[in-house]
Design brief:
alpha/beta, D-Maltodextrin-Binding Protein, domain 2, 2 domains, six-stranded mixed beta sheet, 11 helices, disordered N terminus, signal, ModA, metal ion binding
Length: about 270
């Protein structure tokens, strides 16, 4: 009987230790797997979204994986099956396109941010700031055999907005043969930063973070459709974690971060 009791006690001790070890391992931060969310966002959001993701990661146990490119490139990747939880476009067109293909999580789409369009030049340029009107001699400002850097208007949102603005200002037909068409707005910014083109058209937010450029003029708001950044969760990625991130991106805390990089709320000008 004493032997049986001894075995029973040692068995309970072993069981208790095993149970305690299991609980400890499950609760250990080194064993727990942090949730990872993938965000695909327009290239113009690179700095702002990187900072927003950093702050969000510090607040939660969620890791944010970021992918930046032209809204059109990202939309096509998503349509081809690229995995992502959340998509932020620099215009409504590419979000509409994904929605038409039923690739968005129903009821999650909303307008997040706004932006403005500006004309920039290298900081060493002799040009001074001006008001952009139908009378502005942009072609003359380019100089002989020089080009105007902007996103490719066939698919890049910043280029689409720029074409609209230039057409409404009656400047497009003269400037079109002198374009340096970039794959995204950051590529257009880089051409001006490196002095490869004397002028460029980018978002105000891009100009704000640029190191070696200056803003010469802002496009009149009425010259192009409002620059809006819609956001949505992707189909089958409508998890509690992704919903929490989407909600936070619309919060005042995130809005303060975006404002620091020059973005405005979706229903207001920046």
């Amino acid at each position: 009987m004493r032997l049986f009791n001894s075995i029973k006690v040692h068995g309970l001790k072993a069981l208790s230790f095993k149970t305690l070890l299991t609980i400890t391992l499950i609760s250990s931060p080194f064993v727990a797997q942090a949730q990872t969310l993938t965000v695909m966002a327009a290239a113009s959001m690179t700095d702002a979204m990187t900072e927003a993701a950093r702050v969000y990661e510090q607040k939660t146990a969620t890791h944010i994986r970021l992918s930046f490119a032209s809204s059109s490139v990202l939309a096509r990747q998503l349509a081809a099956g690229a995995p992502a939880d959340l998509y932020i476009s620099a215009n409504e067109q590419w979000m509409d396109w994904l929605e038409e293909q039923q690739l968005l999580a129903p009821g999650t789409r909303k307008d997040l941010l706004s932006n403005a369009l500006v004309v920039i030049a290298p900081e060493s340029s002799p040009l001074s700031s001006f008001t952009l009107t139908q009378e502005t001699p942009l072609l003359h400002y380019l100089g002989e055999d020089q080009r105007l850097a902007m996103g490719d208007p066939s698919h890049v949102p910043a280029g689409i907005y720029a074409k609209q603005g230039l057409e409404n200002l009656k400047l497009w037909s003269n400037l079109e043969p002198h374009l340096a068409r970039a794959d995204n707005v950051r590529a257009a910014l880089a051409l001006v930063e490196r002095g490869e083109t004397p002028l460029g058209i980018v978002y105000r937010t891009d100009a704000q973070v640029a190191q070696h450029t200056k803003i010469l003029a802002t496009f009149p708001a009425h010259s192009h459709t409002p620059i809006t950044y819609p956001v949505a969760l992707m189909k089958d990625h409508d998890s509690a974690e992704s919903q929490a991130l989407l909600k936070w991106l619309s919060s005042s805390e995130a809005g303060t971060i975006f404002a620091r990089f020059g973005f405005g709320q979706a229903d207001s000008a920046p």
